[in-house]
Specification:
Layout (H helix, E strand, L loop, with lengths): L1 E2 L5 H12 L4 E5 L3 H13 L4 E5 L5 H15 L4 E4 L15 H28 L5 E6 L11 H24 L3 E8 L5 H5 L2 H10 L8 H12 L10 E4 L6
Helix pairs in contact: 1-2, 1-8, 3-4, 4-5
Length: 244
């Protein structure tokens, strides 16, 4: 299995859940080399092989190079999970202009997911047993949410959702393509939210809590597994029922 953006948060949870389920895992990071190495060590402690690569999703050559290296390290790739995304909510990127945020999200979340998906489909389709691609969207693309950042995420993550459905038709039956659309998840954004906002999220969620990275990881492991062998073009909403 390959998981992009797996040095922390949802990506690291997916990588570790996959290892617990018996997978060898290749993970990528952009800047957090220390976090990626911690995930690698944790996968090793679970008795599985792990390989770590730095990846620039904006560069097709970088995608091709690391994919070849990941296959050499693990022997083969059966599942490719495009989890990496730009963070415009915390850190330095939170102070970018609206257009700068849009450009960043398009480059990483949309264009990067498309480039990686196309290359993954080529690799997986050439294998005897095919494989699976899982892309990350956002549950609120189905209903909308007011605000500048939600507008940006809706446009880009909505693009990922629509692209993935078309790709699923293009690469079937050799490759399955499915989508996970998380909602309010306890990542760095959730941890930094003020108490009033955190309470408002809980009150608006039928399951009455924030989601965790492990909640998303459970959906990813299911979609990657033989239990989901007859699912393609499907979207799993992991948001506690806020969007149904």
């Amino acid at each position: 299995m390959l998981v992009t953006g797996a040095s922390s948060g949802i990506g690291s949870a997916i990588a570790l859940a996959a290892a617990r389920a018996g997978a060898d895992v290749a993970i990528t990071y952009r800047a957090n080399a220390g976090g990626a190495d911690e995930v690698r060590r944790a996968i090793g402690e679970l008795g599985r092989r792990a390989a770590v690569f730095q990846l620039d999703l904006a560069d097709l050559a970088s995608i091709r190079d690391f994919a070849s290296a990941a296959r050499r390290a693990l022997g083969r790739l059966d599942v490719w999970i495009n989890n990496a995304g730009a963070d415009i909510l915390t850190g330095d990127a939170a102070s970018l202009s609206r257009v700068e945020k849009l450009d960043l999200l398009i480059a990483v979340d949309l264009r990067g997911t498309m480039l990686a998906s196309w290359h993954a489909a080529e690799i997986l389709a050439a294998q005897d047993e095919g494989g699976a691609i899982i892309n990350m969207s956002w549950d609120h693309v189905l209903t909308g949410m007011a605000g500048e950042n939600p507008e940006l995420y809706s446009a880009v993550k909505g693009g990922v959702l629509a692209f993935s459905k078309s790709l699923a038709r293009s690469v079937a039956p050799r490759v399955r393509v499915n989508v996970i659309a998380p909602g309010f998840i306890e990542t760095s954004f959730g941890a930094a939210a003020d108490d009033a906002w955190r309470r408002a999220v809980i009150e608006s969620t039928p399951l009455r809590r924030w989601g965790t990275p492990d909640d998303v990881a459970g959906a990813a492991v299911f979609l990657a597994s033989p239990a989901a062998a007859f699912l393609t073009g499907h979207t799993i909403l992991v948001g506690g029922g806020v969007v149904m």
